[in-house]
From TrEMBL:
One of its GO terms (molecular function) is ATP hydrolysis activity. This is ABC transporter ATP-binding protein. The lineage of its organism: Bacteria, Bacillati, Bacillota, Bacilli, Bacillales. The keyword ATP-binding applies. Coiled coil: none annotated. It comes from Xylanibacillus composti.
């Protein structure tokens, strides 16, 4: 039977623990963290430096595996997937954004986004239109033939967002996406996130220290010493 429940979680972390190293050197970075992301939500994951935010984001993105517990993308347990299936999941279904933008410096904004679409396996006939659509969405179409060193930090991050959304993922995971930006540019980027959620129905989970972000998100999860201690609407 086809499910008619549209409110099934897109992503779920179930008692996720992560231990780095062994014996007396072991670091318990996560100790049973739990969170849920539903379709069309903008969610912040906050916490002090060292609380485990990046560790959890990497596990949610299937870049790393939990020591205990499980991560589900829809109904799929990432631990039950092959490495190849996890690669496919990251390339095709998820968009990743990093603090440092991670653009290829000798490719224009357009080429960076188009390159991302190639990696996602998008048909060559669709790539130009999808790349331009994404750049238009983030307000970078006018400047799409510029190289990253010719752009401001905000423009580079908006290009990185275009790259992360061009293949039309349902979920975007962003690690400290405004950390390198001044408050004005940070706000521009946040507005793009809000618009993506409202207009495209994408879900976004971002890690942050930035108090301004708390104002515009649907939920905040707070990590403290490897636990989710608070979830506020
Ligand atoms: N590869 C690793 N090996 C050993 N310990 C690690 C490793 N990566 C992270 N840690 C430790 O795990 C804990 C959580 O780190 P994590 O980077 O997830 O925190 P964070 O909340 O993202 O911090 P920040 O805000 O500073 O980026 C820290 O104590 C950190 O030192």
């Amino acid at each position: 039977m086809i499910s008619t429940n549209t409110n099934e979680p897109l992503l779920r972390a179930d008692k996720v623990s992560r231990i780095y190293g062994k014996g007396s050197q072991a670091v318990h970075a996560l100790k049973g963290a739990e969170l849920v992301v539903y379709p069309g939500q903008l969610i912040a994951l906050k916490g002090r430096s060292g609380s485990g935010k990046t560790t959890l984001l990497n596990i949610l993105a299937a870049l790393d595996q939990p020591s205990e517990g499980a991560v589900y993308h829809g109904t799929r347990d990432t631990a039950a997937m092959s490495e190849r299936q996890r690669n496919e999941l990251r390339r095709k279904e998820v968009g990743l954004i990093f603090q440092s933008f991670a653009l290829v410096p000798y490719m224009t904004a357009y080429e960076n986004v188009e390159f991302g679409l190639r990696i996602a396996g998008v048909d060559s006939k669709k790539r130009k239109a999808w790349a331009e659509q994404a750049l238009q969405f983030v307000g970078m179409k006018q400047r799409m033939h510029h190289l990253p060193p010719e752009m401001s930090g905000g423009e580079q991050q908006r290009t990185a967002i275009a790259r992360a959304i061009a293949h039309k993922p349902k979920l975007v995971l962003a690690d400290e996406p405004t950390a390198e930006l001044d408050s004005k540019m940070g706000l521009q980027v946040l507005k793009v996130f809000r618009d993506l959620v409202e207009q495209e129905g994408i879900s976004i989970l971002l890690t942050t220290h930035d108090p301004a972000i708390m104002e515009i998100v649907d939920h905040v999860y707070e990590l403290e010493d490897g636990f989710i201690v608070q979830k506020q609407a």
